[in-house]
């Protein structure tokens, strides 16, 4: 069986179509996080609450949760439109492939935490890498299982009708 150049281009386009929304979502979240830190620095020190996890951080966390749920529903709609006519194992494989950016960022955080033997690394950097790896692990699991469930639900609803 010969693999043509057109098949390679088609597979590459499909993979980019699957992975690109999650990559854009991660870049958007990083941009929002940087903007949040910049806005937090604009608040005078006298008006900042003394507690580290303040109302600002709680609001920021709620914003990220809302964005994640909205992204998952968008991604399920996109995957259903593109791959809804395929068999269920193919849909599950596509869900796994579409989560590759989340898995990659999680692995980067884990590697940062594991290979931090240098004693000059601040404790805050280790804390951020540990919390980041845990956060992206939770995000990856929620994305994978919720997308899988919503695609499975759409298939069973389509079969019942």
TrEMBL record:
The chain crosses the membrane at residues 18-45, 51-74, 94-115, 121-151. Keywords: Membrane, Transmembrane, Transmembrane helix. It comes from the Bacteria. This is Uncharacterized protein. It comes from Reticulibacter mediterranei. The lineage of its organism: Bacteria, Bacillati, Chloroflexota, Ktedonobacteria, Ktedonobacterales.
């Amino acid at each position: 069986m010969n693999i043509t150049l057109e098949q390679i281009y088609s597979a590459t386009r499909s993979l980019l179509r699957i992975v690109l929304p999650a990559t854009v979502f991660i870049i958007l979240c990083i941009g929002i996080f940087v903007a949040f830190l910049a806005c937090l620095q604009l608040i005078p020190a006298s008006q900042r609450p003394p507690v580290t996890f303040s109302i600002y951080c709680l609001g920021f966390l709620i914003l990220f949760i809302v964005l994640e749920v909205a992204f998952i529903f968008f991604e399920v709609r996109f995957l259903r439109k593109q791959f809804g006519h395929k068999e269920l194992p193919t849909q599950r494989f596509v869900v796994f492939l579409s989560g590759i950016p989340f898995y990659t960022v999680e692995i980067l955080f884990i590697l940062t935490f594991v290979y931090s033997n240098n004693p000059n690394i601040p404790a805050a950097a280790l804390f951020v890498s540990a919390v980041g790896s845990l956060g992206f692990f939770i995000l990856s699991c929620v994305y994978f299982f919720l997308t899988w469930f919503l695609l499975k639900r759409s298939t069973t609803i389509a079969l019942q009708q």
